[in-house]
Amino acid sequence: MCSAGQSHQATAVVLCKIAGLTVVRSWLTDQVDDRLTHFRPPPDVYRDIGGDGALRPPGGNDALPSDYRVHFYGQDGHLLRASLGNGDSPGPRLPEKAADLHLDTEKPRTVESEDSSGSGWRVIDHSGPDDMHAVVALPLDTVDGATTKLLWFSVVLGIGVAGGVVILGNVAVRLGLRPLTRVERTAQRITEGALELSVPVTDPDTEVGRLSLALNTMLDRLRTALHRTETSEQQLRRFMADAGHELRTPLTAIQGFAELLLDEPRMSDLRRHEAHTLINHNAERMSRLVDDLFLLATLGDTPLPHREPVDLLSLAADAIATTAVRHPRRTITLEPLLTHPGGHERGLDIVETSGDPHQLAQVLGNLLSNTCTHTPDDTCVRVRVGAAHAGQHGYGTDRPDRTGAGPPPAPGTPVCVIEVADDGPGLDPDEAARVFDRFFRAEPQGSRPQPGSGLGLAIAAAITEGHDGRLELDTRPGEGCTFRLLLPDSPPTGPDTSAVRRGRGAAPPVGERPA
Predict the structure, then answer these.
(1) Of 339 and 24, more confident
(2) In what order do the strands lie in the sheet with 331-336?
(3) Which of 301, 302, 292 is nearest to 369 (CA)?
(4) What pTM value is reported for the model?
C-alpha cells in the first residue's frame, strides 16, 4: 500500500514538471513571436535588391540587430539570394517558392534549421512593395536551451526529491507502523496461548490506539467467556462427581441388602423386615435426590407456572408449623422485621408479593430445615417478616461478611423480606462462601443429624432467582446464621386485603413453638 502511494506521488510530480516545462516553453515562444510581430524590415531594403536577387552595397550583415534573419521572395514568388542578418551560422530552411511556405500573414510558425541538428526557427511573413515578401526569422536556440536546462534541473531535482520521499517515507511509515507492529506481536503471542496479555495502547486518539482499545475490549470479553466456560465445566464435573457419589451410597445399600435377602432365604422375619425397611429408606433417599436434581434442572429453563399474590406472613406461619411437627423440641418464633435499629418495632403485618406460593413455601421449608439440621436442639430460631427498602439496615447489599445468591436490588427499591435467624455456632468464611453450592453440606450440629443431599439451599437459591429475588447469608463463627429472603414488593390492590391491612394493626405472634 505504501509503494502504491509513493508511485502515485511520483507520477503526480512528473506530470507537474511536464506541465511546468510546457508552460515555460510556451511563454518563451510567445516572447519570440512578440519580437517577430513588432519587427518590420527597413523599407529601403527592398530598393537595394538587385536584378540578380542580391543586395547591393552597402547592404550586409550589420543591417539587422541581434540574431534576426530576413529572407525575401520576389515578384514571381521565388526565393531570392538577398538576405539580412549574420550569415555565418545556418539559417532557417525555407522553400524555393512562397506558395510552399504555408504562412498566414502576421502569424508566426516554426520551421527547421538548414542543418537538421540545429534548433528550429520561428518565422513570420511580411508583405512588401511590388508583391514582394519578407520572411523574418528568429532562432529558437535560446528557447530550447532554457527549456533543456530547466528539464535537466527538474530531472535532477525530481530524482533527488523522489529519493528523499522514498527514504524518508519508508522511515516515517516504519515509525508510524511501529505501534501496529507491537499490536501484531502481542496478538501473535495471544494466539499462541498467552491470554493474559493486553494490546499496548500508546495514544488513544490515533487509529492504532483506537484499534488497540477495541482489541483489548474484545480480549476482556473473550477472557470472561473463557473463564465462565472453564468455571462452568469445573462446576459440571464437580456436580457429576457429587451426584455420582450421592447416588452411589443408596444404590450400594440397596444392592447390599438385596443380595443379603437373596443369599439368605431362611432369614428370620425380623431381619427380613429390617432389610426391607433399609432398602425402602435408601430408595426413598435416592428418589428425593433424583427429584431435587430434576427440580434444579428445570428451574433454570422452565418459567414459573403462574404468579399470584402471596402473603409471606401466612406462608412463614405455615412453614413454622410444619417444621415444628418435625422438630418438636425446637424453639421457633415469628417476629416482625427489624427496620429501625434501636427504635420501636412495628407489629406483624401482611407482607404481600407476587409468585408461586408452593415454590416459595419450599424455599422457607428448606431454610428452616437447614437451620434445624445444622444447629443444636436448644438453639432458638427466629423468623422475621416485613417490608423494607433495599439498602435499609443493610438489606440486599454486598459486603465482605455476606454471601448472596442473585444480584442485589437497586438501592431504595421496595422489597419484601423474610429472615430465618439462629444463635447457633455459625459458619466459617470458607463454608459460608459455598453454602449455596450444590451438594455442599456443612457438619451437622444437632443431636440427631438428618443426612441431606446438599441440594436444599441450591434449590432455594434457584427458586429465589426465578422470582427475581435474592437470598443472603450473614454469619460469623460463634454468632449464628441469618438467612434472608428478599422478593420484589407487590402491594395488595384488592379492597378486601386493604381492609384487612387497615383493620389488623398486627397479627398475633406465633408463640414460642406452634402446637
Answers:
(1) 24
(2) 331-336, 380-389, 414-422, 481-488, 470-475, 402-405
(3) 292
(4) 0.47
